[in-house]
Amino acid sequence: MQTGLEDQLGLYQKRIPIFTRSVKGRFRRFKTSVLVLAYAIYFLLPWLPWSRLDAPAQAVLFDLPGRRFLLFGLTVYPQDVIWLALLLFIAAILLFFVTGLVGRAFCGYFCFQTLWTDFFIWIEHKIQGERPARVRLYRQPWDREKVLKVGGTHALWMLASLWTGLTFIFYFAYAPQLLLDFFSGQAAAAAYITVGILTLSTYVAAGLMREQICTYVCPYGRFQSVMYEPETLAVHYDARRGEATHGRAAARAGQRTLAERHEKGLGDCVDCGLCVQVCPVGIDIRDGLQYKCISCGLCIDACNTIMDSFSFPRGLIRYDSEKNLASPTPAAPKLQWKRLKTIGYGVALVLMTAYLGYSVATRGNFDRAVNQIRQPLYVVLSNGDIRNRYQIRITNKAGQAQTYVISARGIPAAALDLGNFSEITIKPGHSALVQASVWLPLAVAVQTQHFELRITPLGKSVEARSEIVRFDAPGKRP
Amino acid sequence: MSEQKLQSQTVQTTGHAWDGDLQEYNNPLPVWWVYTFYATVIFALVYWTLYPSWPLGKGWIGGVSNITYVNSEGETKTHSWNTRALLLADLNKAAVTQKPYFDKVAAMPYEQIAQDPDMSGFIISAGKSLFAENCAACHQAGGQGVIGFFPNLTDDDWLYGGSYEKIHETLLGGRRGYMPAFSEVLNGEQIDQLANYVASLSSIGHDATKATAGDVLFHSETAACYYCHTSDATGRKDIGAPNLTDNIWLWADVPAADTAEGKVAAIRGVIAGGLNKGVMPAWSGRLSPEQIKVLTVYVHELGGGQ
Question: Where would I find the Cytochrome c domain in this sequence (chain B) (predicted)?
C-alpha cells in the first residue's frame, strides 16, 4: 500500500491561522458596498415604521402568535405557503444560474458567512493592525499588549454577534418594545435562547471558524463545483503568461521590465505572494482552480495593484473561463451565456418570478373553504324533501372589516337556508364559520349533482369567488 | 504480519509489572468521551434536583421545580413537577380561555347566541367536541342516529319537540319512549291490518282492504292506537308519540326494505313487539348547565326548530 497524504499528516490537522492583508481595488469596493447594503437592510429594517390598523407599526414583522407575516402593505398567512416554496425554488435556480455563468459569486460576495467574516476581519484589522502586525502579535507571548488587543477584538466580536442575534429576534416582535423587554428580563424564554444560540454561532462561525465553515461545513460550496462548465467565468491565474518557459521570478535587477523578463523566458508573475496574503481562505490561486476558492476576487485586486506598480498589463489573475485559457489564442474574457443549461435556468427563473409576482398581485382579499357535512351526507325530511348541509369558513385577509354575502347558483334561491347569517361581517385577519342548509324536493334533488356557492364581499362584486359543491340524495351513487 | 505490527507499535503501559514481565497496555478513553460522561453526571444531578427522581417508600422524591396554573375559578394551584400536573395545567389553560364564552352562554338567551357570529362559531366548535364526547356514542358523530335504536337529530321531526326549550328539557331530564307489545291483545290478522293502515298514511304500497280494516281498528277501543298517536295519526309531542304520517322512520326500518311487503313487515314487527328501548339518559348531573346549554344550541343547529 502506498503512503497517502493522510498517513503523512495524520487524519487531524491543526488549523493554520490566516492573517489576511487588506487590499484596495474593484472587487474590494464591490464587496464593501454589498456588505454595507446588506447590513443596512438587515440591521435597520426591523426599525422601519409602517402604520397599521390592527398590528404593531413595524414594516416587516413575522407575527408567529398571530400566524401571519406582515411585509409592508402585504399580510401573508399560512395558506400562502406556496409563495415561500416558490421563493425557495427561485433562490435555488438563481444559484444554479449564477454559478453556471460566473462561478461561486454567491460565496464570494453575498453569503452571510463571507459578509460576517469580512466584518470581523475588519474589526481585527482596526484593533490589531495590518497583517505583519497581526502575525507578530500572534507569535509574541501573552503580555499586556496582546491581552488587551486580542481581548478587545474578541469583545467587539461578541458585541457584533449579540447585536446580530438581537436583530434577528426583532423581526418577530415589535422591536422597540422587545429591546426594552429583553434588557429588563421581561422577554419570552424563546427570545433569550434564540439570541444566545445566534450570538454564539455568529461568534464561532465568523470569528473562530471562518474559512473552515466554507471548506468543511457548507454543502453549497461543494455542490456549486458541479455546476461549473468549461465556459464558466471563474477567478483564474493565467499560468501561461505568469510562468512562461522558465517560471515565475522576483523582480530583481536585470529582470524588472517585461522586455528583460521575456528575453530570459521568465513569466510576468513577480512572485510577490500578495495574492496568497489577501486570500481569506488561505490558498494560492496560482495552483489553479481549487475547491476552497470562494471566488471573492481579492487576489485579482492584489495582483492588479502589483502589475500597475511594475507597469505590467493588468489581468494576470482575472475572471476567465477554462476553455478560453486553454485555447491557443485566448480572446478577451467575456460572459458566455449561449448554453442550453444557462438559458434553461434563465427561462425557469423568469417564469417562476413572473408567476410569483402574478400570484401576489392578484391574490383575493379573502379565503374560503366550503365543506359538505358528510355525517350524514343527506337528511330525508318529514315531507320527503332532501336536505344537505355545508360548512363555510371565510377568512378575511383584507386590512379592514368586511361583510360577505353568500348566495347559491344552480338551485332555486329559496332552497338555500343560511340560518341567522345571510350576511356576515368579519374582522381583518379573522375567520368565521357559517352553516348553510339546502332543501330540495326529492324530484329536484335526484336531478341535482352539483351547484355553486358564491361568496361576495359586499360592495366588491369583482372579488366574488365561487365553489362548486356536491348535492347528495338517496339512491345516488358517488 | 500482526506480530510485526505489535513490535513496531509504541503503546504506553500502565507502569505496573506482574510476575516479572507482565505489563498492561494503557489505552485511555478518548478525551471527548470522558468529558461527555462527566457532563451526563452533572446533568443527572441537576435533573434529580429539579424533577421527580428517586422512589422513597410508597412515594418519591418530588424535586424542587413546580408547576403553577390558574384554574377557571381564578384560583392559583401549585404542584410539584410531574406530567399529570403538566396535563392539568394545559387543561386549565384551555378552561380559562373558554370561560368567558361559557359565561356568555349562561347569560345570553338562545336566539341571541345563535345570531351572534362569534358565539355561533364557539357553539360549532365547543358543541362539536361536547357532542362527540357525550352524545355521538348513540346519535353518531353527525347526529344522524341509527334507525331502530337512536333518533336522527338532523331531520325536522322531533318526538318531544325541537324548540330550544324542549331540547333543553330532553337533555336535562332524559326521555323514555314506550309502546306496548300489541301481540298480547291483537291477533296476527289485526296487526297486519294495522300495519297496512300505517303504511297507507305514508303512501307506501299496501293492501287497501286491510288498510281500511286497520283504520277502523286504529280508532277502536280494542287497539286504541289513537290514544297516543291521535286520531289523525300525527302523534303527541308531550308524550313522545311519533307522527305516523310523515316520511321519517325511527323504529321500523322502512327505508331499508326494498319491497312494499318488506316495508309493511317492518311496521308489523314494531306493532307486535312494542318498544321499551327508547331511553335517553338525563344529563343534568353529568354536565354543567353551561355545557348543556351549548349542546342545546348545537343540537338545535343540527335540525331543530320544529
Answer: 122-202, 209-303
Q: Does A132 touch chain B (CB under 8 A)?
A: no
| Separation between Cα atoms, residue A146 and residue A151, nearest integer Å | 8
Q: Determine if residue B135 is labeled as part of a ligand binding site.
A: yes
1.10.3210.10, 2.40.110.10, 1.10.760.10, 3.20.20.220: CATH of B130-303: 1.10.760.10
- Report how far apart the first and last C-alpha atoms of chain B are (Å, whole number): 98
CB-CB neighbors (< 8 A) of A374 in chain B: 142
pLDDT tens-place string over residues B88-139: 999 999 899 999 999 999 999 998 998 888 888 899 889 999 999 999 999 9
CB A140 within 8 A of CB A166: no
Closest-CA residue of chain B to A430: B118
The 3-state secondary structure of A139-191, one letter per residue: HCCCCHHHHHHHHHHHHHHHHHHHHHHHHHHHCCCCHHHHHHHHHCCCCCHHH
Query: Both A213 and A298 in a single domain?
Result: no
Report the mean per-residue pLDDT for chain A. 90
Q: Are strands B59-60 and B76-80 parallel, antiparallel or unpaired?
A: unpaired
- State the complex-level ipTM: 0.76
Q: Does B255 sit within 8 Å of A375, measured CB to CB?
A: no
Most confident of A136-145, B115-124, B153-162: A136-145
Q: Out of A379, A383, A424, whose CB is closest to B303? A: A379
Which structural domain, as residue segments, surrounds residue A443? 366-470
Whether B124 contacts chain A with CB within 8 A = yes
Q: Are residues A283 and A397 in the same domain?
A: no
Same domain, A169 and A281: no
- Residue B126 to residue B103: CA distance in whole angstroms: 13
Å between A474 CA and nearest CA of chain B:
10
CB A380 to CB B243 under 8 A? no
